[in-house]
Design brief:
Largest sheet: 6 strands, mixed
Order of helices and strands: HHHHHHHHHEEEEHEHHHHEHHHHHEHE
Helix content: 55-70%
Length: about 500
């Protein structure tokens, strides 16, 4: 019997379109990865549109060449087959277009970014998606036969059952956490902190939390206690520095508070209303992805030495026990510097006790300033604040982390005490409580507290040369005890008067 050659199917092959799409996706991912790498090493990231535009240009060029080379083969297709493939290509193009549009609109190189969109963008993209997919589905069902339609229904049913069976189990595994590192990277506890957690300077030890007001809302909403049924009136301390045409009010804040405290009234509200502008420790960038990039650029340890390798056996055992007690894998911070681990560890117990940055004094003051169209500025930038931690000698960073681990169970009660002293307007008691922690890390206190107090006093003195009224709100620890902002102002010949 003569072996007859097999008849080849007429029409273009489908391997090249798939390869073109995969290569275009790889190009977009390469641009995003390169841009993130630049940001993490302190460089200028690429514009967010470069990756999508390069990928789209490559895909269009590749598909145009593919169509030109196969135009004769397609001439023999039936109308139904043409409709089928036009529908499939249109649907894939719509999905890719929406994904790339969101990537650019969110200002992120991450296709899985949760960065906010403008309302107009969200509405327009939603309408395009719903209308486009509805039309594509209509033409798809006109193109397929009964057998394919039945297969489509079976696939839908299988997908539904896979979703309702697998997703709850996966969610439970991740929340424990029992998931492998792949899942923890996408949905584990650390992701929430990388994207929604920023760092604040007032960690020693007044607000021993690394949350910048208003930028850890997800964690706070999950852990914060319900709004208090009753309101407790408190009277934090307030000072003023005045000359003939200038007044600077000094108000100490707590960055995270529990609901139910009434402090923004009386003398504080009156001073705020009289002020022309609000001055904070820092004003964060609006883009949370930018905050995360600035933080990670300094927090990642480029030396190649794991954090766990920097700790002695006793400290390592205590550190790993603390991580486990908070539901974090012990190796979560191995790629980071000790100061970042210490700050992050200091946040978790507070949010679980109901402290919420949305209730913090800076958040309330900022909201009021925006409502009244008052300018808001900061003494420092985010990079400067992070730099203070990063500039600490490694021995000081490790000592700081060890203190955080040792006092992990005390952080909540200690902050409760300090909030009580703050609300009672008792800076002397507040300073005495703070000194208990400062004794163990004096060089940290010098870098993060006293030196900054001196620089802020210098800026306030310079501001006194300009007419106007300024409401200065910084962590209450900066306005308590020896070497406070008031002490440095007095050294410069300025009179500080307490008015509440």
């Amino acid at each position: 019997m003569t072996n007859m050659p097999k008849e080849r199917r007429a029409g273009p092959g489908y391997l090249w379109p798939v390869a073109i799409i995969m290569i275009a996706g790889a190009v977009a991912g390469a641009f995003a990865g390169y841009s993130d790498g630049l940001a993490e090493t302190g460089g200028q990231p690429l514009p967010t549109w470069t990756g999508p535009v390069a990928a789209l240009a490559l895909a269009l060029a590749g598909m145009a060449l593919y169509i030109r080379l196969n135009r004769e083969a397609w001439a023999g297709w039936s109308p139904r087959k043409r409709l089928y493939w036009v529908t499939m290509v249109a649907s894939m193009s719509l999905g890719a277009g929406v994904a790339l549009t969101l990537q650019v609109a969110q200002g992120s190189g991450d296709l899985a970014s949760d960065a906010p969109l403008t309302p107009a963008t969200a509405i327009i993209v939603s309408v395009i998606w719903v209308v486009g997919m509805s039309v594509a589905s209509l033409f798809y069902f006109r193109a397929v036969d009964d057998h394919e339609r039945h297969a489509y229904y079976l696939g839908s049913v299988a997908g539904f059952h896979a979703f309702v069976i697998a997703c709850p189990v996966l969610s439970l595994i991740i929340s424990e956490p029992l998931a492998p590192p792949l899942f923890e990277t996408k949905a584990g506890p650390m992701t929430s902190f990388f994207r929604k957690l920023a760092l604040s300077c007032a960690i020693i030890p007044l607000a021993q939390c690394a949350v910048v007001p208003g930028h850890n809302s997800a964690a706070a909403q999950e852990a914060a206690a319900p709004a208090a049924a009753t309101t407790t009136a408190i009277k934090p301390a307030l000072w003023a520095v005045k000359d003939d045409d200038t007044t600077v009010y000094l108000f100490g804040t707590v960055h995270v508070l529990k609901p139910g405290l009434s402090w923004f009234d009386g003398a504080v509200k009156d001073a705020f209303d009289k002020s022309d502008e609000l001055k904070l420790e820092l004003v964060l960038p609006e883009d949370q992805n930018e905050v995360a990039k600035e933080t990670m650029a300094l927090a990642l340890d480029q030396s190649g030495t794991a954090l766990s390798a920097r700790l002695d056996p006793a400290a390592l055992a205590a550190y790993q026990a603390a991580m486990t007690s908070l539901g974090l894998p012990p190796a979560s911070f191995d790629g980071f510097k000790p100061w970042f681990a210490g700050i992050t560890l200091s946040v978790l117990p507070l949010t679980k006790m109901g402290y919420n940055p949305e209730e913090g004094a800076e958040k309330q003051l900022s909201n009021a300033a925006k409502a009244a169209a008052k300018p808001i500025s900061g003494f420092e930038t985010l990079s400067e604040q992070l730099g203070f931690f990063d500039a600490l000698p490694m021995s000081s960073q490790i000592a700081f982390l060890n203190v955080m681990v040792k006092d992990l169970d005390k952080l909540g009660p200690q902050l409760d005490t300090m909030v009580g002293q703050w609300g009672a307007g008792d800076p002397a008691a507040l300073a005495e409580t703070m000194n208990e922690g400062l004794a163990e890390t004096p060089d940290v206190a010098k870098t993060l507290l006293w030196d900054r107090n001196a620089r802020w006093a210098e800026q306030i003195e310079a501001r006194m040369a300009q007419p106007g009224t300024v409401f200065v709100a910084v962590g209450a620890g900066h306005l308590a005890g020896a070497k406070s902002v008031q002490d440095y102002l007095k050294e410069r010949g300025l009179k500080v008067t307490r008015i509440q």
